[in-house]
Model the fold of this input.
Amino acid sequence: MRVILFTGKGGVGKTTTAAATAVHAARAGVKTLVMSTDAAHSLGDALGVGLGGASSGAPVEVEPGLSALQISPPHLLGESWRVVQDYLLSVLDTVGIDPVVAEELTRLPGAEEIAALLELRSQVESGPWDLVVVDCAPTAETLRLLALPEALAWHLERLLPAQRGLIRTLRPAAAAAAGVPLPDVAVVEAVTGWQRQMRDVHRILTGDQTSVRLVLTPERVVIAESRRTWTSLSLYGFVVDAVVVNRVFPDAAAEAGPHTPDAWRASWNAAQQEGLVEVRESFAGLPVVVTPYLPSEPIGADALADLAAAQEGGADVLSPVTHRGLTVEQTDEGFVMTLPLPLAHAADLGLQRRDDELVVTVGEHRRVLTLPAALQRCVVEGASVRDGLLRVRFVPDEEVWPRG
Done:
């Protein structure tokens, strides 16, 4: 199964692009599901179908071979969160927090994002699809969404051993000493389930079947944000396999013929051509798909199919992803860990070794990497950023791994 996620700055047409891709694939014989993680829920509007009635969270058939899904967070999270929430409410009641306030405090942060990730996992693992197209939220929200599985699993893994130990041996004494109830087995089992599911989601998102496509318009501000997004996605281990440039105006001079072209459109033509040059230079090595600005808004499957047919350039929806994630290679001196960071500069980069982890920071984004066993017995000798790659050099720690 192939998974393609579309994201971009708000207002660039990512929902329309995702929907057009899904319609085009389905009409080519690829059994396709298109789903949205965007809280705006505009996917149904683009397809011209009602998705709000799917309260059970079931996909709605748009046409043969194409289904669409609007996510229902309460349905997906259900009892597993209620078990944890009841425990938190009991703790807050013990310390005298007003019940109404406690109810608000225990609402699950990021519930829609977690629900979207769990639904994506479910559809990939058990759905009848050849292709799952995901209309993601604008870039900032998407980066938080895609970083969530690894980060949440990391925190849960550190929480669970301590809680298991308390429940097994210290529950009565610890509860009495703390003055608050300790979580029971059901709470720990719920958290354990989330940990496992988040690891599964992260495996899907960073696997060879999944890629991200950046949607943008040929404008400087949008291109600049898209460049940063490419770097940040690569930091978290996600592969961008194409760039879609939307809303490119027809050539005013060509349409005017022997007449003087409209000055307003001619000015936009010139600015957009400069933007297209910048896009191709910025995202060198990636396919660039150019989508013209059509005379009318593409609403409904037929209009979306026309939009897909009008695109120039292309990226096969079923072609396998050449994964370019984190790698570790052994050298004569030790090891080199390589992480793709396209368009990153050394001035934007921060590295910190913390026990068995390496914290990599690019701008405002941070990823905590748990080092492989071999690198845990090494020290960092140096790092460099060149040709879109972060290379970190490790040499064996003489105290724990004496040389030959």
About this structure: The chain has a mean pLDDT of 81. The longest strand covers residues 240-248.
